[in-house]
C-alpha cells in the first residue's frame, strides 16, 4: 500500500471527512511530509471508492458548492489494519537487525 493511501485511510479511520479535511489530516499525520494536491487527492478518493475501501457518506451544499464527506468502510478498516500489522512486522525486523548490527560493531 502506498503511503498516501495509507494516510487517507488512517485519516478516515477517526470518522467522516470532506476532501479538504482529508487533505489537512494527511498533512498532519505525516508531519507535513505528505501534501496531497487536489487532483491527486480526488483521484485517490475515487480509486478507493471504486475498491470499496471508502464511500461517500453524505453530500451537502456549502456556498453553492457540493461538499462530499467520505467514510471508511469495513473493508477499508480491514485493509488498514492488515497494513498496520505488516508495517509493524517490517519495523520490528528492521529494529532487530539494527540491534544486531550495533552489537556486532561494538564487539569489534
Automatic annotation (TrEMBL):
This protein is called PadR family transcriptional regulator
Organism equals Dactylosporangium fulvum
Tell me which InterPro entries the record gives. Answer: Metal_resp_DNA-bind_regulator, Tscrpt_reg_PadR_N, WH-like_DNA-bd_sf, WH_DNA-bd_sf
Q: Where is the Transcription regulator PadR N-terminal domain?
A: 8-81
Amino acid at each position: 500500500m502506498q503511503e498516501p493511501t495509507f494516510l487517507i485511510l488512517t485519516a478516515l479511520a477517526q470518522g467522516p471527512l470532506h476532501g479538504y479535511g482529508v487533505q489537512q489530516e494527511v498533512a498532519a499525520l505525516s508531519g507535513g511530509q505528505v501534501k496531497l494536491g487536489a487532483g491527486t487527492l480526488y483521484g485517490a478518493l475515487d480509486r478507493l471508492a471504486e475498491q470499496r475501501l471508502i464511500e461517500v457518506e453524505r453530500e451537502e451544499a456549502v456556498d453553492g458548492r457540493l461538499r462530499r464527506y467520505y467514510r471508511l468502510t469495513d473493508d477499508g478498516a480491514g485493509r488498514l489494519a492488515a497494513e498496520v500489522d505488516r508495517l509493524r512486522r517490517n519495523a520490528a525486523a528492521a529494529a532487530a537487525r539494527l540491534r544486531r548490527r550495533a552489537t556486532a560493531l561494538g564487539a569489534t
